[in-house]
Amino acid sequence: MENPLPGELVVLFNRLLPAWPGRAVAEQGRKVLDGPKPISIVGSTGSIGTQTLDIVAENPDKFRVVALAAGSNVTLLAEQVKTFRPQLVAVRNESLLNELKEALADADYKPEIIPGEQGVVEVARHPDAVTVVTGIVGCAGLKPTVAAIEAGKDIALANKETLIAGGPFVLPLARKHNVKILPADSEHSAIFQCIQGLPEGALRRVILTASGGAFRDWPVEKLKDVKVADALKHPNWNMGKKITVDSATLFNKARSGLEVIEAHYLFGAEYDDIEIVIHPQSIIHSMIETQDSSVIAQLGWPDMRLPILYTLSWPDRIYCSEITWPRLDLCKLGSLTFKAPDNVKYPSMDLAYAAGRAGGTMTGVLSAANEKAVEMFIDEKIEYLDIFKVVELTCEKHQAELVTQPSLEDIIHYDLWARKYAGNIKLPSSLSPVPA
């Protein structure tokens, strides 16, 4: 697939035309739906997918599911089909097709089922869907997201690689098809909410908050002893394994790292104007500073359903029951604290900063190498501190082949290359954090 614009214009779009240029204003005359908004969910059995379905179940008058795609959890997928009655279902693992059919044998409703990658793509571009929730982790979510954009669907973005790896390709494509990219993760949703109605040029700085993850209170010298179970104990959020480990390493929050790169593409902030602050309570989900030095923050209990809900309902606000959606009580909370991130404890910050500055395919290589390294750590093939070294060595190797204006094929090629290279790296048995 070729870039939709010449290389020079891709750079221009990258620099000047982010998804939201520091402000968010609903277009006048935007179509108002008659009835519940039809949505597709790519990654329906994962953390983002299941929480999205919680929202649909809570608001059947606001949303309805027209298509679902899952990877291999056919038991849960079958339950979702019976509950939400989508028109189309995809199971990415083709070998599980018969198992899914058997699980639905006694159902009074039978959807169309398309197996494999093609099925996931068809779910993403289902003709009835207005918005597609992209909940697949990794570059596997890029192709269905591109298909959805080409079909004119708004994107509820929970797949970071769409912009981290694919930003130079995806942003001009979304603009070409007049598609909105709406951030579904907590931090970028917070920024998105804070820029609503800002006048042009008002954004001065983006302040991303990070909980600090499982090891925020651990001394650096103890990190060599980290086990998988330790890294998966996130103090505040209920998330998937990969994202939880990323919170522990701070790869998902590293300065000019994964979420900083995503913020750059989403809101057009320069890297020097995107900062990280450790906020252990995870109540302030992120902040912006305006040109007059005012700081605007978005607060709420740590609950991923809230940013997902806003992504689905924007520009509207939907009433939430106090029973299932507890309201924030600042007096009960008591206090909020903040501190600067530790570069020695989180060497991912310097690694990701360098990758963000390099741009092009380097950010996708960083993300893919990190994903592979986290996978190896969870599988107990490497130690916790090895995650940083695997990513560093992979990025160093890629420097000679960096593509500054990548096509979709380049992005996918180097994603696969990075995973393979990272998986074959041989490391010494013990590593220590490298001081900044």
TrEMBL record:
<dbReference type="GO" id="GO:0030145">
    <property type="term" value="F:manganese ion binding"/>
</dbReference>
<dbReference type="GO" id="GO:0030604">
    <property type="term" value="F:1-deoxy-D-xylulose-5-phosphate reductoisomerase activity"/>
</dbReference>
<keyword id="KW-0934">Plastid</keyword>
<comment type="pathway">
    <text>Isoprenoid biosynthesis; isopentenyl diphosphate biosynthesis via DXP pathway; isopentenyl diphosphate from 1-deoxy-D-xylulose 5-phosphate: step 1/6.</text>
</comment>
<dbReference type="Pfam" id="PF08436">
    <property type="entry name" value="DXP_redisom_C"/>
</dbReference>
<comment type="similarity">
    <text>Belongs to the DXR family.</text>
</comment>
<dbReference type="GO" id="GO:0070402">
    <property type="term" value="F:NADPH binding"/>
</dbReference>
<keyword id="KW-0464">Manganese</keyword>
<keyword id="KW-0560">Oxidoreductase</keyword>
<dbReference type="GO" id="GO:0051484">
    <property type="term" value="P:isopentenyl diphosphate biosynthetic process, methylerythritol 4-phosphate pathway involved in terpenoid biosynthetic process"/>
</dbReference>
<keyword id="KW-0414">Isoprene biosynthesis</keyword>
<dbReference type="Pfam" id="PF13288">
    <property type="entry name" value="DXPR_C"/>
</dbReference>
<dbReference type="Pfam" id="PF02670">
    <property type="entry name" value="DXP_reductoisom"/>
</dbReference>
<dbReference type="InterPro" id="IPR003821">
    <property type="entry name" value="DXP_reductoisomerase"/>
</dbReference>
<dbReference type="InterPro" id="IPR013512">
    <property type="entry name" value="DXP_reductoisomerase_N"/>
</dbReference>
<feature type="domain" description="1-deoxy-D-xylulose 5-phosphate reductoisomerase C-terminal">
    <location>
        <begin position="181"/>
        <end position="267"/>
    </location>
</feature>
<keyword id="KW-0521">NADP</keyword>
<keyword id="KW-0479">Metal-binding</keyword>
<dbReference type="InterPro" id="IPR036291">
    <property type="entry name" value="NAD(P)-bd_dom_sf"/>
</dbReference>
<dbReference type="InterPro" id="IPR036169">
    <property type="entry name" value="DXPR_C_sf"/>
</dbReference>
<dbReference type="GO" id="GO:0009507">
    <property type="term" value="C:chloroplast"/>
</dbReference>
<keyword id="KW-0809">Transit peptide</keyword>
<dbReference type="InterPro" id="IPR013644">
    <property type="entry name" value="DXP_reductoisomerase_C"/>
</dbReference>
<dbReference type="InterPro" id="IPR026877">
    <property type="entry name" value="DXPR_C"/>
</dbReference>
<protein>
    <recommendedName>
        <fullName>1-deoxy-D-xylulose-5-phosphate reductoisomerase</fullName>
        <ecNumber>1.1.1.267</ecNumber>
    </recommendedName>
</protein>
<keyword id="KW-0150">Chloroplast</keyword>
<feature type="domain" description="1-deoxy-D-xylulose 5-phosphate reductoisomerase N-terminal">
    <location>
        <begin position="39"/>
        <end position="167"/>
    </location>
</feature>
<feature type="domain" description="DXP reductoisomerase C-terminal">
    <location>
        <begin position="299"/>
        <end position="421"/>
    </location>
</feature>
